[in-house]
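Subject: sequence -> structure tokens, single chain

Hey, anyone have a minute? Need the predicted structure for the following. Not urgent.
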Amino acid sequence: MTDLERRIRAANPIAIGRATPLSSRAEAELQALLATAPLATAAPRPAPALKRARLRGAWVTGLAAVLVFVTVFVVGNVTNRPQSSAASSPPLLTSVAIDATVPEILGVLSAAARDIGPSAASSERTVRSEAWSADISVDDESNVTMFVQPQEISRVWNDELSGRVTAVAGEVRWGADSASAAEPGTVLVDEEYGRGQYPAIFATRPPSTAAELRSYLAAPLGLDDQSTAGQWFKAVQDLRADWPLDGDQNAALLDLLATLPDVSVAGTVTDRLGREGVAVETESRVDGVFRDILVFDSATGFLISAEDVYLGGLNDISLPAMTVLNYSAWKDVD
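Reply:
Had a minute. Here:
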């Protein structure tokens, strides 16, 4: 393993292949890595006819976001001409504007979630989601091709921090099908964890007030009053990867978002799984390089999906602006 690989792995608190979102802490380390590691001067590698980056960790989760950037950062130094990868990524969500302020909208959603109330405490929890993985190929003329293949993710774990994570390949959704794509139904990840080994970022039950939730999210991720709204959005995704949230917990999450600066209401949307929701977004992370989006069920106020969009602005990354990078849709919502 090279020094660069070790640094990339260190940027993710949970090992590759465990289908976990890139945490705020990992995000900060990624930025430090990009700022301090001049990948263009890395030792040259043999140039085969086809260089392939297999991002099996999930399009939206784990180390995939880091690897997308690192891969394209490396191959982008071969050529700066525009690539066609955006055509192989999901289209942007279409939103219908809502004539209301952020506090008004989030207040309505919070009240709906609070009406549902708490769930009975349990020593075991299951989080089911759909995530999208990417496969990026670069030929010897620096032509980039990419396809997106969903994964069905299941995380089952308990108070003793033992559990199991599985990921199963779905049908290729965007980009040309490829012989390198996994056969639908293939088990990509199946990892069991003994007592004390499950890699939860948030090991204790989430609180049900905004003030407590702020401290709860901040502690393991190093967030503070200077953290951007985008970093808090990523922390919310970290939390949702670990926990199926009840009504009171979703209400606390919405109340917390209402206190953040630089948040706007995108409007009503239909998420990638066809569910109606309200999207809130921020473009505050990494000086406006990313748009982070959270989608809440319009009837219950529950968080149902999240995604990140690359807006452009990083000179050494050849991905086109407005490329949807990361996506998660949670399926354990009542």
